[in-house]
Fold:
Amino acid sequence: MTDAAVAITRTVDARGSFCPGPLMELIRAIRESQVGDVIAVYSSDKGSKTDIPKWVEKAGHRLVSLETSDGYDVIVVEKLR
Amino acid sequence: MQRILILGGGVGGTLTANLLVKKLRARIDRGEVGLSVVDLTGQHVYQPGFMYIAMGGERAANLQRPERSLLDKRVTLVIGEVARIDVDHQVVTLTDGRPLGYDQLVLATGSRIVPETIEHFDTEAQHFYTAEAAARLRVALDRFAGGRIVIGIAGMPYKCPPAPLEVAFLIEAELRQRDLRDRTTIDYCSPIGRAFTIESVSEMATPILAEKGIELHTFFNVEAIDAERKVVQSLEGEELPYDLLILVPPHKGQQFLMDSGLAPAPGGWLPTDRATLQVGGRPNVYALGDATDLPLSKAGSTAHFEAPVVTERIVAAIEGRGVDHKHGDYLGKVMCFFEVGDGKGTLLQFDYNHPPRPPKPNQIWHLGKIVFNKTYWHTVPKGRV
Structure:
């Protein structure tokens, strides 16, 4: 699942942080961002790749991509509202 | 003289001071080591008791004792407010200008609540994170005659993670006893995708919520309170109407830690090594308890199990020997009781590698919590357990 055309506005490196750390870091970034901003979250916590997409759907944002590389996940989210 | 300076007279600071005396008594008596604790008020407060002011007839006066009475006589108690820490020059400056030099620094500075960061929190929401607020919640519960109760968490991390669930269970039980349950709805709002951060605890608590008819709302991150319409709104776009709103207030680390460049804004949590408890890679600065950024419960229990680690590392440095890793590495141990209402409780015991496996709730663990609370003054701060 990738979307190469989207430019990342902000990167949140939450590697080494455990559930719900990465989700909480994303929520903080969303609160501080503008509509249309794209946030990339790096997470080494296994729960993030299920928790974060569920939260993104409930909160009405867009999951741009979710990829795994070098033992961590990169989850990219666009703020829609 | 080697100077050990501990900032904070809560569980972590007090216990560390007393454990250091046990290990360094002779050196302190010979004047080779000096040990000071700095505390803002000079009063040691047993914060886990606040919930029982709201729920169990506890009195604020029973939850506070002079810090001096808990510290070994060899420890110097300095009452004052920290303004700044200069780690390059190893000096802590108080707001009245007093400089306190150190060779080993322990940051046991806790967390603070910041309800003012959410508009209308002070006038609309109840909480139990100070003795005064807990007493106000008790009054609100006494006046409650049925309606909609919403219990939620207005920011993570926060102190004593099980507390809002415990309060939900205890209130539900109380309302049944007062014959108000059939006239009341209770909503429980969790900021994450389940009832509790730790999966095994969530698996235990979720069926209890269902059994008690408490509706669980997941991914509910409190964003605003509409005081006029009496609704609490989430970042995710949900709204819940309330007659009685109980929210865990947002928490932060101490401002002087951010001002001193030791902890990043806006949270103010100290970047702490999960095993050594050293702050920012500095060999002579340690943190424990709520002040750290570790992914663990902000609870007295965490500080309780971290204090021996800090003690061993400081003693090793002063004695000029290597650290005994059996005692000098923190493995993430935490242990706390968990009330489920109706006189029953359970126990959460875990570390970094072993999630809790809470036993089936029973009366024993509820009584265990009561006994622990009552005997706290004679056990934990003095290093007897």
Notes: Chain B touches chain A through twelve residues (CB under 8 Å). The first strand of chain B starts at residue 2 and ends at 7. Residues 6 and 106 of chain B are 5 Å apart (CA to CA).
